[in-house]
Amino acid sequence: MKKNSVKIAVKDKTREDIINSAIKVIAKSGRDAASILEITKVAKVANGTFYYHFKNKEELLDTIGEKILIEIVDSYEIDWSSAKDNPAVLFAHATKVNLIKCSKDPLLLKVIIDAFHIRGKVPVILRGYNKSLIAHIEYGISKKKYDIKIDDNLLANMQSINRNALIMISQGKNIDKTIQQAIEAKLRILGISSKEARKISIDS
After folding, report:
1. 175 and 103 in contact (C-beta within 8 Å)?
2. Spatial distance between the Cα atoms of 98 and 186, rounded to a whole number of angstroms
3. Alpha-carbon distances of 13 from 19, 23, 61, 171, rounded to whole Å
């Protein structure tokens, strides 16, 4: 029994090593350029070991997306215990928490920025982000705070603001100011007046 537990622990560690090595490679080279060969080299495992844990590169990328989703993007979910508050204030707070979490790990920050540039299939990270984003906007619409239609253009604009904010943070720009500007820009897109959007972004 103890022997089986050790085997499982080793298997889990190897899988985690591959995931963490892939994050390093993607942060350095980008998602498209990251090869299985380079990932296994960094992880110090054989190609066969990689395929024992993952069917292909796409499965690994989805796993990384799920990992980031759990650690970071889930912070974008609505805090229903505070849902009686102004939807715009809730959205601003969620945006701030999300961007701060994204900026704490330099490697994950680069991987997230890279995900925003993917064309075609929407990465797991962005699917999770969009799901929470839509929930926030729908809540604001239900409270008659936002007068806007949810469509692909709206989501793309919100993603663009996030991407630009994260790039600025990665370049060493002032985090507080960058987040404030991102919040204000998002609220303006949702139809919040310039004056209110500025106040909420400063108070967040």
Report:
1. yes
2. 14
3. 10, 15, 18, 33
SS3 32: coil
Q: What pLDDT band is residue 71 in, cutting at 50, 70 and 90? A: confident
Tokens of 160: 């663009």
Write down the architecture of domain 2-54 according to CATH. Orthogonal Bundle (1.10)
Q: How far apart are CA 67 and CA 175, in angstroms?
A: 24
The CATH classification number of 69-203 equals 1.10.357.10
Domain extents in the chain: 2-54, 69-203
- Provide the token pair at 20: 């963490």
Whole-angstrom distance, CA of residue 44 vs CA of residue 145: 53
Residues 200 and 187: beta-carbon distance below 8 Å:
yes
pTM attached to this predicted model: 0.82
pLDDT above 90: residue 175? yes
Number of helices (H) and strands (E) in the chain: give both, helices first.
10, 0
Sign of CA pseudo-dihedral 164, 126, 31, 157: negative
